[in-house]
TrEMBL record:
Any one annotated GO CC term: cytosol
Keyword match Lyase: yes
Protein name: Unannotated protein
Cofactor field: pyridoxal 5'-phosphate
Family: Belongs to the threonine aldolase family.
Boundaries of every Aromatic amino acid beta-eliminating lyase/threonine aldolase domain copy: 4-287
Pfam families in the cross-refs: Beta_elim_lyase
Amino acid sequence: MAIDLRSDTVTKPSQAMRDAIASAPVGDDVYGDDPTVNSLEERVAAMFGKEAALFSPTGSLANQLGIRSLVAPGEELLAETNSHIVRAELGAAAVFSGITTRTWPAKNGLLKAADALEIARPNSGPYLVSTTAIAVENTHNFGGGTVQPISEIAALKKGADEIGIALHLDGARIWNAHVASGVAFSEYGKYFDTVSVCLSKGLGAPVGSLILGSKEMIARTRVWRKRYGGGMRQIGILAAAGHYALDHNISRLVEDHARAKKIALALAAIDSSLIDPATVETNIVGLDLANFAFSASDFAASCKEKGLWISALGPKYARLVTHLDFDDAQTDEAIEILKRCLKA
């Protein structure tokens, strides 16, 4: 069987998770009647110190709901150049919310508060677009799973408050950031007006994200979710998977991080230009193939022929993501395949 490291979204529910799904109490969530969804929303909101939460079928929708609640049509969102919101949500903020997105670049996606605040334009009057929100991604997917420094997040919050700009956290992999840094979920939550989290990446649920915020904001967001076609009915079966994931799959993320680090160290020993292992903080290994003759697509195809699936995310950039369906033996096997393909 092939080893699949294209993403941590490729995991399959365990039998215990399937049992939880099968026995979940359900109701009509559009009416607010699903007890399992309601308890999940209350649980996750409390984890991050927020008043309320709303279940979303996808992380992209959760992000867009957060953005829509903070930024009015014709206003501006700031985000890092390679953030998921900018690079991998197909211009949704412009399409659905009618807003402008402007970016700042950051090495490995790591936030420097001054860089974001420097380009902010609050209350710009009748000629310039006004900045009303800044988005931060933690961990940063295309930055290689890097963890945002809490000191920079705090500095961003202080500066944003001074000029009346809201903050959104794309916390799809905030679970990994928490495990790697030791920073509490509530500590992350206190700096942001809205927070999105995903249950179907490192935590292994089949479907599900949530958007968190104040009660008033989530009430508005519930309306927008329905407008976007995201209202669902008896989804306690999905929320039950989320409860199981939160109960069992957070602390074990340290195993994914260790396996990613092992891969990075092995490949850096072949050619140090491929990756700096010190930058591998969580479960993502990004490979720079600039010094190799083949493209990332050709490299991914070669790996696939040998039984290892990885992602080519740029002409010379390949990505591997470790997850709960990937064990120590497969780590060693993946390293050997990668070595052979790099030397081909």
